[in-house]
Design the sequence.
């Protein structure tokens, strides 16, 4: 069979692109590290910080996450909620999140006293109810503090979804396994940040390594008033919010 | 997009995880546990009046037990991986032990007790029958052909011991199912230490009601008179266990109402709107207050036999409706509100889908088919035993 130089280059290009994509997809699905990875799990403990005042509700994070992780339509590994609170009525905030805030938010006709955006994702809890409840151990916490799902092992019972107090999990409509934010494990183990943090235009979201003494997270936690979502659940949530309003749930 | 959403739900909450099949799961295991407890009244507590339904109760329990895992299998996203629960159970999971509790109850308690109780009949049938029946009964003897007095005495003693173990096992089976729900701290509708206890008593109620109906139906089809002292005794136990069950549920309700914690308004609103039909009408009014009133009347009014039978039948039907509604309200109700406590969704049941109404109906008919087959192979009738 004869092959022109042009055909050879095209075939080689396809091979390089496809093999890279296949490897990427494999790592994305399983969280496995490449054999030659220099990443050491024991040297990291991942978390995230979110500055409420910096979030402008643009939805870039939701879009980037969906694209990066092939999140099925109608489901969200991360999403943005808009809160409107009137006066002292903290118990009845008006909340919306159209399409997870992916395309931003419509304008408000009658503005409340205050309004703000809260972006959400898996809290990668240290005492995670989803990890506790998984009957086969398909959901687990990695040594570097990321809660992951082994999609080749999950039986698809949905118990972890019931157990998550934050609504962060969903049943993947075609894979029929539990799915959720992996903190872009395939990226952070290569020294990159998460897709959502990468595209956040205001720096509201920041990936944090609690084991890295030089990480700005330590200053962030020391200087600011910090809260986690639903602290009464005692899940050891590791998404830390600055200036989180009492009406947020 | 789920159009039945009102208020705010977290975006991933639009999809209900657990369907009508998961409603069937606690309903069916409840019937198993309840029917077994009724059988144990005759065996352990020597309540002679319920002796006519002893074997029928055991077979009823077994028929439902054989179907119990099917709704779970149908529900799983990957049923082919369900064996992993046995092979690599995750010890911290409240759900992981189901397979073991199920196997313990099926193999060690139910099958063993039924086999021991029927062994003499099986051996005699193996000797007297011909053709495929002979093969069947010979296989069922499991090679144990001695039916002398000493062997039967051993059967009796071991059977008694198995029943003794069976009572806490029945409690474990259904209390465990209650714990699967009651231990979910993320869900205020489920999270309660009372849940396993309520499940145990509601199981007894439903199992006793089911056997009451099955026994009457068996008498009707066999054209035999109903043993009224037996029926009266079953109805009496149904009434008392139902009172305890109702008291526990009311305790839960009063506690929640008085505490009025963060989730209360949401749950209260849900009960008065989306769950009104199944909770207020189905579970409390039709399924609890009316059958309790009917049973109370039979206890204190001493009506005629015919009226008693009619009221027992009606009461038992309504009781089963009430317990089914209770399972529905727990499983479906627990998913209709947002964990943000700011919104509600709806459950739209499919029909001929994997988790739809049709499979649910088939799964509820299947135990009766199995019971019919088992009754043909192992007749439970007292007059034949005598």
Sequence:
């Amino acid at each position: 069979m004869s092959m022109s130089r042009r055909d050879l280059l095209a075939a080689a290009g396809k091979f390089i692109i496809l093999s890279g994509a296949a490897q990427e997809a494999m790592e994305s699905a399983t969280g496995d590290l490449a054999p030659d990875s220099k990443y050491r799990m024991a040297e990291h403990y991942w978390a995230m910080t979110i500055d409420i005042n910096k979030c402008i509700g643009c939805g870039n994070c939701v879009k980037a996450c969906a694209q990066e992780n092939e999140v099925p339509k109608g489901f969200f590994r991360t999403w943005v909620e808009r809160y409107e609170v009137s006066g002292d009525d903290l118990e009845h905030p008006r909340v919306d999140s159209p399409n997870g805030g992916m395309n931003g938010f419509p304008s408000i006709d009658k503005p409340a006293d205050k309004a703000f955006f809260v972006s959400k994702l898996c809290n990668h809890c240290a005492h995670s109810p989803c990890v506790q409840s998984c009957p086969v151990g398909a959901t687990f916490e990695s040594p570097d503090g990321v809660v992951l799902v082994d999609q080749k092992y999950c039986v698809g019972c949905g118990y972890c979804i019931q157990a998550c107090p934050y609504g962060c999990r969903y049943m993947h409509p075609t894979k029929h396994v539990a799915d959720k934010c992996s903190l872009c494990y395939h990226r952070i183990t290569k020294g990159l940040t998460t897709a959502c943090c990468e595209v956040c235009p205001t720096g509201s979201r920041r990936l944090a390594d609690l084991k890295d003494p030089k990480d700005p997270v330590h200053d962030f936690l020391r200087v600011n008033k910090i809260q986690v979502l639903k602290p009464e659940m005692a899940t050891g949530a590791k998404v830390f919010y600055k200036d989180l309003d009492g009406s947020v749930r | 997009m789920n159009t039945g959403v009102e208020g705010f739900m977290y975006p991933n909450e639009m999809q209900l995880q657990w369907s009508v099949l998961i409603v069937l799961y606690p309903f069916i295991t409840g019937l198993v546990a309840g029917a077994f407890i009724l059988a144990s009244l005759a065996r352990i507590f020597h309540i002679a009046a319920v002796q006519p339904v002893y074997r029928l109760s055991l077979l009823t329990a077994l028929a439902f037990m054989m179907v119990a895992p099917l709704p779970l299998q149908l529900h799983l996203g990957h049923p082919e991986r369900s064996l992993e629960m046995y092979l690599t159970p995750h010890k911290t999971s409240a759900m992981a032990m189901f397979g073991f509790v199920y196997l313990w109850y099926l193999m060690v308690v139910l099958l063993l007790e039924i086999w021991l109780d029927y062994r003499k009949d099986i051996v005699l049938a193996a000797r007297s029958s011909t053709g495929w029946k002979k093969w069947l009964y010979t296989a069922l003897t499991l090679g144990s052909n001695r039916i002398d007095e000493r062997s039967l005495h051993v059967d009796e003693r071991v059977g008694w011991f198995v029943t003794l173990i069976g009572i806490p096992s029945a409690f474990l089976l259904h209390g465990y199912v209650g714990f699967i729900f009651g231990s979910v701290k993320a869900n205020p509708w489920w999270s309660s230490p009372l849940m396993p206890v309520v499940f145990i008593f509601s199981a007894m109620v439903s199992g006793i009601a089911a056997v009451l109906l099955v026994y009457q139906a068996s008498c009707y089809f066999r054209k035999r008179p109903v043993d009224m002292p037996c029926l009266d005794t079953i109805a009496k136990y149904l009434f008392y266990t139902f009172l305890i069950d109702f008291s526990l549920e009311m305790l839960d309700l009063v506690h929640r109402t008085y505490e009025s914690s963060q989730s209360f308004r949401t749950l209260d609103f849900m009960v008065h709107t989306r769950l009104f039909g199944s909770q207020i009408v189905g579970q409390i009014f039709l399924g609890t207050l009316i059958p309790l009133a009917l049973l109370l009347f039979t206890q204190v009014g001493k009506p005629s036999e015919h009226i008693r039978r009619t009221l027992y039948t009606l009461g038992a039907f309504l009781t089963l409706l009430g317990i089914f509604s209770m399972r529905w309200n727990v499983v479906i109700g627990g998913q209709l509100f947002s964990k943000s406590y700011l919104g509600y969704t709806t459950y739209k049941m499919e029909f001929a889908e994997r988790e739809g109404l049709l499979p649910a109906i088939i799964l509820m008919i299947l135990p009766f088919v199995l019971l019919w087959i088992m009754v043909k192979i192992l007749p439970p009738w007292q007059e034949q035993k005598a």
Remarks:
- The domain at 44-249 of chain A is CATH 3.30.70.20 (Alpha-Beta Plaits).
- The first strand of chain A starts at residue 46 and ends at 51.
- Chain A touches chain B at residues 74-76, 79, 81, 93-97, 99-100, 120, 129, 131-137, 153-159, 161-171, 175-177, 233, 249 (CB under 8 Å).
- Residues 24 and 186 of chain A are 8 Å apart (CA to CA).
